[in-house]
């Protein structure tokens, strides 16, 4: 019996997602141990695409964009989102070949396995169910034979109750003052995703009204400068700290947590910690030992990867404290709408699938290793850093899910900056240097429109003029003949020539509110999963981050021994030994017995 995902429409704006599978979700999904013959690069559709590359490279986008039928077929409109991928170096034949590759990679089956709660993260023996975090209350999504949605909503209800009490002043600090300031302490996915959503909401009119008189800050880096910046101007009496650590053992997060605990205790006394600190964690023993009431710990689950956790208590708790649960629930509904779209739509109408297949085409066939994420909206300034982690931590792999070394490149080097700032930063390179596929993201209606009498266009129209112009500039370029007709000096023609034929795609949102922000997040999450499914890698583990942390433990022990016992540096290579020794010598004023000293800004 094949896996299948049913989307049941109860009413126009209410969808119930129910996933069925033929295997028990308690069974570990262990891919068939493979030889190199099982790699996707050995499949005929992959070889067909490889053979197709020369034809595409011989065809300029100037020519492809003259085909109106092609351009119209590469324009997709769904739930207020417009995708235009006509400026990709691809023909209709290319897209059909990519669909054949998707079939060879069993893409639909893999999507269904994810939604069904099968343990597709085989190296950690876990389901991958961030879609359950934003499912409707009556949805059925299984993990280990149990519907996880009721547990998700149990936590969401708890968040709503707690955030309402903090916001309305019925939960107060140790001195009786309302807690109007929140510092969320976490790193990686516990920081980048929530920060993106917070930054995007800060200028939304509804969110502004909901957040009036409140502020939310994020402490991530173990660098004491980050601590200093986050507590500057805050009063411990009115501050609530949210510590985000699943195991409550993450080194950087827990050192920052202990630092803020000391900041609170030194001002208000140790007993104040229970009123001013809460946790997002599953380790209730360590939470209580830290001084936090376990009743004030908000759970999430091992089927939630850190970089996919913004829709869990990791993001929903601090964001609800700032904006109110009703605003954040709209964000969850936006993400859920894309989950349903991704699960149910045919590939030719499926935005995340199309984006993922085009990324595979650009990376593995055309040889473009990077992707620029270019939102023409300042509210999305933290979007690229978040997607950078989601993408590069997910797909920066060198072996297949079976452990077979890959003979092709995977993953993208993601970076970006809002327009038009990026135009005055790195667009020189993307126009006349390396070919870097670009994602242009625009918004029809500005969160904060400005109109000046006498100006040719509004401020937002000025911004969007660049959003529409840049993709064409990259696609068409400018030839030497065109420059000669403009009477450009001959010696400048080589410098002013633009080769063009540089691929991009455009996403146009009707507005940027909580719902749209959720949509945008889920589009990119699923796009990245599609890439991993095609490459047959595990996009949901991250073993690459472990080695550096392990070596840092050795360095930490050496620094302690050198500071407290005067031991010389040993056990490292010559380069590291030299640098460590110079660091210790230059910072010899650090006392061996560390006194408590907090930032003084």
From TrEMBL:
InterPro entries assigned to the protein according to its UniProt record, in alphabetical order: G6P_Isomerase, G6P_Isomerase_C, Phosphoglucose_isomerase_CS, SIS_dom_sf, SIS_PGI_1, SIS_PGI_2
SUPFAM superfamilies linked to this entry: SIS domain
Gene Ontology MF, one: monosaccharide binding
Top-level taxon in the UniProt lineage: Eukaryota
Location in the cell: Cytoplasm
Gene Ontology BP terms: gluconeogenesis; glucose 6-phosphate metabolic process; glycolytic process
Main localization, broad class: cytoplasm
Pfam family, one: PGI
Residue stretches spanning the membrane: none
Reactions catalysed according to its record: alpha-D-glucose 6-phosphate = beta-D-fructose 6-phosphate
Complex formation: Homodimer.
Protein name stated in the entry: Glucose-6-phosphate isomerase
The species this protein was found in: Crotalaria pallida
